Amino acid sequence: MKVLLTKKYKFMKNFTFDDLHGKVCAITGGAGVIGNVIVYALASVGVKVAIVDYNEERAKEVASDVAANTGATIIGVKANVLDKSELESAREVIIEKLGPIDILINGAGGNSPQATTSVEQMQDTDLDNLKNTFYGLEMEGFDKVFSLNFKGTVLPTMVFTRDMLQKKSGVVLNISSMNAYHPLTKIPAYSAAKASVNNFTEWLAVHLAKMGIRVNAVAPGFFITNQNRFLVLDEKTGDYSQRGQKIVTNTPMGKFGEPEDLQGTVLFLLSELSSFVTGVVIPVDGGFNAYSGV
Fold first, then answer.
1. Structure confidence by residue, pLDDT tens digits, 196-212
2. Helix, strand, coil content of the chain in percent (nearest 5)
3. Three-state SS across 215-248?
4. Which positions are annotated as active-site residues?
5. 35-86, pLDDT tens digit by residue?
6. Is 197 helix (H, G, I), strand (E, B) or coil?
7. What is the pLDDT of residue 11?
8. Architecture of domain 18-290
């Protein structure tokens, strides 16, 4: 079959992130471990960043620290990702101080001991004490984790992409997790919520494609964060817990990731280098998703 070329193709002279310079990004969860390194990556290429966090003091502290180290324009803005009115107020502040929003990163999330079972698999011996199993979970904790991770992605997207609609351009990047592909034992709410984030990423990418807005996600593998530290490290020795060792054993690269390992993938998905990429979730996981365990 003959393929007709209707135009001359242009080859890019430089593969850089220069197109991101001067763009305005709102990032939820930017004051966390993973969010912080993403903010540094954004600052390094000249993005103007608004760190949106329910703890205004923490957001402003991180913003000040990154700005001092990079010279970038970074601000901290108060908003709870589950409160639409607070998000709308935050958007007004961002527009006033930085300009219309070009990029949204939904990074707010986390797990909680209240939504975590004590046992990995039920045994007959658990029948007399169900509190350590799925049957002992309190809905309050389950709802809290599911809402933070899933609704905390949906609501900021409703609010912070309005400027993108007007310009017919923009990028949304969601932070998913390996749990979306392979639910880990003990954390049903977190796993279910991140699976929902993946599905929502694909749905929204289709919904907004003709508006010039791309929607993608990254799925971090296993990084030691404040949310999972109690699960993967032994509090007394500082060594890996039994669970932490299982993770390392089942990660082909044989280690936990460093948050900085996400920076390149994030910038790629935000930049014009990925201009024909939408609706995908890219694992950054040291090979965990590819490994069957055998």
1. 999 999 999 999 999 99
2. 50, 15, 40
3. EEEEEECCECCCCCHHHHECCCCCCECHHHHHHH
4. 190
5. 999 999 999 999 999 999 999 999 999 999 999 999 999 999 999 999 999 9
6. helix
7. 62
8. 3-Layer(aba) Sandwich (3.40)
